[in-house]
User: Fold these one by one.
Assistant:
Number 1:
Amino acid sequence: MKEITAAEFESEVINGGKVVLDFYSSECPPCEALAPKFDGLSKLYDEDIKFLKIFRQNNRELANSLNVMSSPTLLFYDNKMEVANRLSGGIKRSEIIYNLDSMIPESKAKAIKAQIKPSISEYETLILGAGPAGLTAGLYLCQAKVNTCLIDVALPGGQVTNTHQVSNYPGFIEPQPGYMLSHNMSEQTKLCGTIYKVAVDVTKVDLDEKKVIIDEFETIQAKKIVIATGTSPNLTGAKGEIELKGQGISYCATCDAKYFVDLEVVVIGGGNSAVEETEFISRFASKITMVHQFDKLTANKQAIDKLLTNPKVSVIYENEPRKFEKIDGKMQIEIENLKTNERNTLISDGVFIFIGMKPNTALFGDKLKVDNWGYIVTDEDMKTNIPDIYAVGDITAKKYRQITTAVADGTIAAIAIAKELN
């Protein structure tokens, strides 16, 4: 694989035939996650497609001219023209393959896939999920000299990555940016020796055999499995929500509030997350209308009192959304009064939804014991009802879900596993 500079872009990329170019940076975890996938695929496709790398930090002018704003970013070229979709951030192997296959004949793509040989890796412990709970478990296990692999469908950090500031994590006098706190956790665990396989597709999980297949070809075998897959945002179920996700509807204030400077938004929800995130959004938006199903907000009193004194915020109580539409660039939200059944339409520039979370257990079938809400039941050592399978963090059945409770779970599971293995 060749590394080029901006001076070689014309000859190597524009006039290079079929090319995939990786803009990478140093000290870039997503770049590190991409590197082995990019290298492995280059060995499979190099007869048909040229694989190139370029150091973005030393070639900023070129990157800016191409509107490459993040690392890594993959660009695909064919006969002088950029083709396929650009890929950036936590890039999955399957996404790269999809683009590469679109650049060559179908028969050739099938022949290349026939060359892929299944592989098997063995570890003492396998962790599914790289949020605070999984990262802490990985840290304690590697410090106990337990050979450990950590798998995640995204990049390390979990939901903390999308949290604006964390003010209640012990050891920090000043509030910490969520992305920085999760980055430090990840780097600490990685440097300790835990093997990372992140931004992958989890094809299959067999808890009885303690096997996990990723990216359709690599089998990870372990003696113990720690489930740390966390939770995902609940959906309202209103018409148009799924179709408009990322196109006017967001579930992450930290990610998207900055795009609504001096604009109007609607927030769905009234619990702790909704109230806290609305306070953050108010730093950008000119007007916020909250829609809540109950007759009062259900967050902690201090947060409510602060929010209700904010002149940008108003609340519509005892209403729920029934339909989301986007017309002429504006979001139209049809809401229904739960007492009168009267329906009205709100018009805004965007919608944020914060109505709670659901456990990410779809990969595990119905063998795990769960509570009435689908959270995994564990004992005091974080063991589940299946031998050698542990669960930690937000996915477990417990009263409080905080970063500190997640890292505590990871600590307990790792210590219990290390003692059993030794």
Note: The two ends are 43 Å apart (CA to CA).
Number 2:
Amino acid sequence: MALTGKEGLFLDLRGRGLTAEGIKEMFPPSSYFVASVDGSAVPGKAELLDALAAAFRFPGYFGRNWDALLDCLRSLPDEVPAAGYVLVINNSASFLASSSRDMEDFTDIAGEARSFLLEKFKVPFTVALL
């Protein structure tokens, strides 16, 4: 499935030697909400959903499934107002490494969320790979 939201979704910053300070310069906290996860701690779907729930401060009723993830990502402007949203994945080479299907599903959902946020709220959603 080709989603227009996938274009520009991933920002590959690997090999640039960026630190947390470099990310703050690219995405100033005064404007952007930046969530970070450790890709080496996210081998599959269950760990991804838990990590994203914590990083984005999803509500306690988050259902920990793909549909709930999409709902919560689409609701970010209502829950955490910002001019844009960035998911920083540290150790991204290990991110969802044990399941290509989970990576495909995550990419589809993140792309749908990106399209929705751009269209409805005019705010970007980006996944930065470190």
Note: The chain has five helices and four strands.
